[in-house]
UniProtKB/TrEMBL annotation:
This is Peroxidase. Transmembrane segments: none annotated. Residues 26-326 form the Plant heme peroxidase family profile domain. Substrate binds at residue 159. Ca(2+) 2 binds at residues 190, 241, 249. Removal of H(2)O(2), oxidation of toxic reductants, biosynthesis and degradation of lignin, suberization, auxin catabolism, response to environmental stresses such as wounding, pathogen attack and oxidative stress. These functions might be dependent on each isozyme/isoform in each plant tissue. It catalyses: 2 a phenolic donor + H2O2 = 2 a phenolic radical donor + 2 H2O. The active site is at 67 (proton acceptor).
Length: 326
């Protein structure tokens, strides 16, 4: 019985590993090359038209894809509407860009009905959003199917601005992403925004005595207090990278080095020995070398993230309307 049990476990491990490989292999470059040749160009032109009228849509689309992948995998579940769906979760507050995905989907349905998944549109739109913000571009493997489940209760595992580095590492590792991916992907905050309510406690009430977070540089603290007064509007939006909020660059990492990180979870990357080393490399002032390295690493990390728990033909579908299951 003992030997049989051992062999059984061994066989099960092989099956699980092979299953994981099959799932990852379900994505491939140029998946729609014959079924819908203009798919990627249609998504690109749709994102571009929205970006031209509102450049801040870029971080919105990037965050939307991130939230989608961290809950139920990259399956478009964040797009589903409903009282108990992911959009209803507190962690989903402020999500935007849904109209861009809906527009792209409508255009694709008129050309290639029921072919291109909403999950793939999200992944492609996130890439295009970064590219339009003077950031890197990368080839997005496609072939995802849309999930049928969307629960607000499952959004609790999303990273929070209050998370320590240890908790951030745990949450990323649970999705198959390592510390290198964590630091690299957080670099997306170079074009993001946040509300005063998510960091104002660092300015006025970081400790029970009402002190400010000592890791914030004095000059930046003054600047933030001006932007977010103690009794001001908590929903006021502030750029996460005040230095160059519209450009996808390494300024975000330089901010962490200089004590100018806005979210506590971001600034803490400087205090952890493992993440500190990566932040230093990305923040290097050597022009044309490590800056380009971040561009390259970000694309690779995005490809890895966008492959989290993708749905296949067996457990997914291609939604006709992204906000509801078929």
């Amino acid at each position: 019985m003992g030997v049989y049990f051992g062999n059984y476990c061994y066989v099960m491990i092989i099956v699980l590993v092979l299953g994981a490989e099959v799932r990852s292999q379900s994505l491939k470059n140029g998946y729609y090359s014959t079924s819908c040749p203009k798919a990627e160009s249609i998504v690109r032109s749709t994102v571009e038209s929205h970006f031209d009228s509102d450049p801040t849509i870029s971080p919105g689309l990037l965050r939307l894809h991130f939230h989608d992948c961290f809950v139920q995998g990259c399956d478009g579940s964040v797009l589903i509407k409903g009282k108990s769906a992911e959009q209803a979760a507190l962690a989903s507050s402020g999500l935007r860009g849904f109209e861009v995905i809906d527009d792209a989907k409508a255009r694709l349905e008129s050309v290639c009905p029921e072919v291109v998944s909403c999950a793939d549109i999200l992944a492609l739109a996130a890439r295009d959003a970064v590219d339009l913000s003077s950031g890197p571009s990368w080839t997005v493997p496609t072939g995802r199917k849309d999930g049928r489940i969307s629960l607000a209760s499952e959004a609790s595992n999303l990273p929070s601005p209050l998370d320590s580095v240890a908790v951030q590492k745990q949450k990323f590792q649970a999705k198959g992403l390592d510390t290198h991916d964590l630091v690299t992907l957080l670099g997306a905050h170079t074009i993001g925004q946040t509300d005063c309510q998510f960091f104002r406690y660092r300015l006025y009430n970081f400790t029970v005595t009402g002190n400010s977070d000592p890791t914030i540089s004095p000059s930046f603290l003054t600047q933030l207090k001006t932007l977010c007064p103690p009794n001001g509007d908590g929903s006021k939006r502030v750029a996460l990278d005040i230095g160059s909020p519209s450009n996808f660059d390494v300024s975000f990492f330089k901010n962490l080095r200089d004590g100018n990180g806005i979210l506590e979870s971001d600034q803490r990357l400087w205090s952890d020995s493992e993440t500190n080393d990566m932040v230093k490399k990305y923040a290097s002032t050597i022009r044309g070398l490590l800056g380009f390295r971040f561009d390259n690493e970000f694309g690779k990390a995005m490809i890895k993230m966008s492959s989290i728990d993708v749905k296949t033909d067996v457990d997914g579908e291609v939604r006709k309307i992204c906000s509801q299951v078929n």
